[in-house]
Design brief:
Blueprint (H helix, E strand, L loop, with lengths): L8 H73 L7 E5 L5 E10 L6 H13 L5 H11 L12 H14 L2 H13 L3 E12 L5 E3 L8
Antiparallel strand pairs: 1-2, 2-3, 3-4
Amino acid sequence: MMNLNELTPEERKVLAREALEQEKEAEKAKQEQRKVYKSMTAEKVTAVFPSLMEQSTLLQELKKHIYDEFQAALEMKYELYDTKESQQSHTFMSVDGMQRVTLGYYTTDDYDDTVNSGIEIVREYLSGLAHDDNSRVLVSAVMKLLSKDKKGTLKPSRVIQLRQMANESGDDRFLEGVKIIEAAYSPAKSKMFVKAEQKNGLGAWVSVPLGMTEA
């Protein structure tokens, strides 16, 4: 085993240079492997993407086919049961009750621009209630119900809370502001969905995986 203490200063310098060269070579090899890795994964993405696009198209076509299959049933449901077309989902059961399909669409909360008038009226009313430190803290807490989310939208659950407060206050101006906010609510339809379920041996409903994340 080499004893470093027995080496001359020149020999130590040589060893240090060799060690440095080895480190450089190792780092160079690692960089080359990283290039190979990036190239390999990039090629894999290109290879599998057409299959993913194909499956996406097939799923879209299948979703449309299912909706088309149930369209006549939906129209009959509207007529026979006086169901509003604004209903967000519809569930249909198999004859033996072991399978069911749910069709529907997701909604996103939205308001027209008159909501700002309602908010201003409510803010004006609440501001008039702040007479001392205690009342200002309370008003500040209620004001938070008017704060919008990251998308710039009021949460309907908070509007419901405001409505309860307005009813309890009995103030016409407060109620007017809340009514304007409620009337401005105009939820927008988002993605349509199809959900398939079947009962297992225990009689519990189990979802049929229809997406890449569920399968």
